[in-house]
Amino acid sequence: MTAPMLYTFRRCPYAMRARMALLQSSVRFQAYELVLSDKPAEMLLKSPKGTVPVLVLGGDHVIDESWLIMEWAFANHDEGLWWARAQSQENLGLLALNDGVFKEKLDRYKYANRYPGVSPSDEREQACDLFLRPLELRLQDQAMLGGAVPCATDLAIFPFVRQFAAVDSDWFSKQQLPAVQKWLAVWTGSELFARCMLRLPVRTWQWFDA
Ligand SMILES: N[C@@H](CCC(=O)N[C@@H](CS)C(=O)NCC(=O)O)C(=O)O
């Protein structure tokens, strides 16, 4: 098999989860760090919807949804059962909330200027009510979403919580979300995250040898 090739964007939380899953499952891959305003024609031919990440495998096999890239990665190698533990009803429910209402509120909070008439502080409050407080309750009982140990849901979700926290880190640090704050600090300080945030030159294929 030719090496998997990933079109990616370093700061995209969907691309982060894909890169971490590939690294965690020991898949050796090449990566193309693109410029969002100048997506390569070859990528758009393979995935016309134009979002990253896109994983190109041998032949015509293309996976252009981050969660499905994670599934493919863990199907390759998953000694720690990171994928299996992500399949519980609770974890799938959390993922749906993250990719749905939380992402929507995050965008309206972070990029408020793109949403005229929207109150960023209302969006932030709703994001807490609908997602971060339920997440807090889960994490008060267990260190990770996989239980005592991580799973694919942790990887899929924390890049979005990180983005939310970074909009106003001072405000975030003062919220009554101690378990979420601790969990986020563990992940942002992890070796896996550092490896996934490797800086690559743009518009060129490189081995992702983090
Ligand atoms: N459902 C997709 C969403 C991916 C997505 O929306 N990625 C953003 C970057 S964070 C993107 O490529 N947006 C297109 C653009 O900005 O042109 C997935 O999970 O892979």
Describe the 3D structure:
By secondary structure, the chain is α+β, with helices and mostly antiparallel strands. It has two domains: about 5-80 and about 200-205, Glutaredoxin (3-Layer(aba) Sandwich); about 85-190, Up-down Bundle (Glutathione S-transferase Yfyf (Class Pi), Chain A, domain 2). Helices cover about 55% and strands about 10% of the residues. The protein is built from nine helices and five strands; from the N terminus they run βαβαββαααααααβ. Helix 1 (about 15-25) links the parallel strand 1 and strand 2 (about 30-35). Helix 6 (about 150-165) packs across helix 8. The longest helix has 22 residues, at about 90-110. The two termini are about 20 Å apart. It binds glutathione. Glutathione binds near residues 14, 51, 65 and 67. Glutathione binds next to helix 3.
The CATH architecture of the largest domain can be named as Up-down Bundle
**CATH classification, class level of the largest domain:** Mainly Alpha
Our count of domains comes out at 2
- The shape, in one word, is globular
Alpha-carbon Rg, integer: 17 Å
Major sheet summary line: 5 strands, mixed
How much beta, percentage-wise? 5-15%
Structural class: alpha+beta
Low-confidence stretches: none
- Termini distance? 21 Å
In spatial order, strands of the major sheet run 4-3-1-2-5
Helix content: 40-55%
Which topology of the largest domain does CATH recognise?
A: Glutathione S-transferase Yfyf (Class Pi), Chain A, domain 2
